[in-house]
Design a protein that fits this description.
By secondary structure, the protein is an alpha/beta fold. The protein has 2 domains: 213 residues, Rossmann fold (3-Layer(aba) Sandwich); 31 residues, no CATH class. Helix content is 29%, strand content 30%. The protein is built from 8 helices and 13 strands. Strands 6-7-8-3-9-10-11 form a 7-stranded mixed beta sheet, sandwiched between helices. A 4-stranded antiparallel beta sheet has the order 2-1-4-5, with helices on one face. β12 and β13 form a beta hairpin. It is globular, with a radius of gyration of 21 Å. The chain binds adenosine-5'-diphosphate and magnesium ion. The site of magnesium ion has 2 residues, from α1.
C-alpha cells in the first residue's frame, strides 16, 4: 500500500451520546464523543473511573445502543442496525477479551480447542480450524502450548489464548476492556505485544481500555476520555519510536464545532472558568483569565 493512500476507518464515531435512564435519574455517560480508528490500528483508551470507557466499548461491541450521534463500524451503522443484524455483527465482526481471565476460556478445553470452538460454531471444517488455531497461537508466542489446559497456563498466557479466541473468526475489530487488570506489569506487557502482533499480522483493529501507566509505548495512539468526550491524544513521535518517555507527544483535541477540553492542571494553574479571553497572536491561540 502506498503511504499516500489514506487508511480506511474501521470505527467512526461522531457526536456520540449515551444517556442511561434509571428511575428518575439520567446519567450522561457519553457526551458528544468523536473517534476514528483505522484498519489495523491499535489504540488504548484511558480515563478516570466513570468517564465512559466501558460505555464506549459496549456500544462498539453491539451490546448497548447509543442514544444519539453516529457510530459506524466498517459498513455498519450501529445506531440503526436491527436486533438480528446486531447478533450477526457481534458473532462475526467483533472479538472480545474480558478483564476477568477465567471468563475468557473454557477450563475443560485445551488452548487449541478453545480457539477452535468459535470456528466450529462458525461452520469451519476441522482441518481448517486446527490450522488457524495453531497459526493464531503461534502468532501470540504460544506455539508450544497448544495442548495445555487453561489451569496449566499463567494469567498472561491465558489472556493471550483469549486474544486468539477473539481472533478465531477473523473479526474486523477486537475489543478489550482492561485485559491486563488482573496481571502484573511484566505480564501486562506480553499481552500488549500479543495484541500488537494480531493488529499487524491480521490487520485487525484493536481498541483496548487500560489503566497501565506506560501504555503509550505499546500502542499506536492513546486517547483519553474525560467526562464522556475525547479530550487528549498521545502518540509517539515517529522519529523517536520506542525510545522512552520524551518520545511521546500529547495533543488536545478540537472537535468539528470548535470544542476542546483544557487540561485540568492548566485550568487550576490559570484559574480558567466561566468567562475567559480568547485571542490569536500570529499562529497561536491565547486563552486568558480575566480578573
Ligand atoms: P468507565 O468504564 O470509564 O469507568 P462507564 O462507562 O462504566 O465508565 O460509566 C460511565 C458513567 O455511566 C458512570 O457515571 C456510570 O455510573 C454510568 N453508567 C454506566 N453504566 C450504567 C448503567 N447501566 N446504568 C446507569 N448508569 C450507568
Ligand atoms: Mg469500565
Amino acid at each position: 500500500m502506498s503511504t499516500s493512500t489514506p487508511r480506511q476507518n474501521v470505527v467512526d464515531c461522531q457526536d456520540l451520546f449515551k444517556i442511561y435512564k434509571r428511575a428518575e435519574l439520567e446519567v450522561v455517560a457519553l457526551r458528544g464523543l468523536d473517534l476514528q480508528v483505522t484498519a489495523g490500528e491499535f489504540i488504548a483508551v484511558v480515563g478516570a473511573s466513570g468517564s465512559g470507557k466501558t460505555t464506549l466499548l459496549n456500544i462498539l461491541a453491539g451490546l448497548d445502543r447509543p442514544s444519539a450521534g453516529r457510530v459506524m463500524v466498517g459498513e455498519r451503522d450501529l445506531l440503526t442496525l436491527t436486533e438480528k443484524d446486531l447478533v450477526t455483527y457481534r458473532r462475526w465482526e467483533v472479538g472480545f477479551v474480558w478483564q476477568t481471565v477465567s471468563r475468557n476460556l473454557l477450563p475443560y478445553l485445551t488452548a487449541r480447542d478453545n480457539v477452535a470452538l468459535p470456528m466450529a460454531i462458525g461452520g469451519k471444517d476441522e482441518g481448517g480450524r486446527h490450522q488457524r488455531a495453531t497459526d493464531l497461537l503461534t502468532t501470540l508466542g504460544l506455539g508450544s502450548m497448544t495442548e495445555r489446559y487453561p489451569s496449566q497456563l499463567s494469567g498472561g498466557e491465558q489472556q493471550r489464548v483469549a486474544i486468539a479466541v477473539a481472533l478465531a473468526n477473523n473479526p474486523l475489530m477486537v475489543l478489550a476492556d482492561e485485559p491486563t487488570g488482573e496481571l502484573d506489569t511484566h505480564t501486562a506487557v506480553e499481552v500488549f505485544h500479543g495484541l500488537r502482533a494480531v493488529a499487524e499480522t491480521y490487520n485487525t483493529t484493536v481498541v483496548m481500555v487500560t489503566h497501565y501507566p506506560g501504555v503509550a509505548r505499546y500502542v499506536d495512539r492513546v486517547v483519553q476520555i474525560r467526562d464522556g468526550r475525547l479530550s487528549t491524544e498521545v502518540v509517539m513521535r515517529p522519529t523517536f519510536r520506542g525510545s522512552g518517555e520524551n518520545a511521546l507527544e500529547e495533543y488536545v483535541l478540537v472537535d468539528a464545532a470548535g470544542r476542546l477540553q483544557l487540561p485540568e492542571d492548566m485550568l487550576e494553574q490559570l484559574q480558567l472558568q466561566g468567562r475567559v479571553k480568547v485571542e490569536t497572536q500570529g499562529d497561536r491561540l491565547v486563552i486568558r483569565h480575566v480578573g
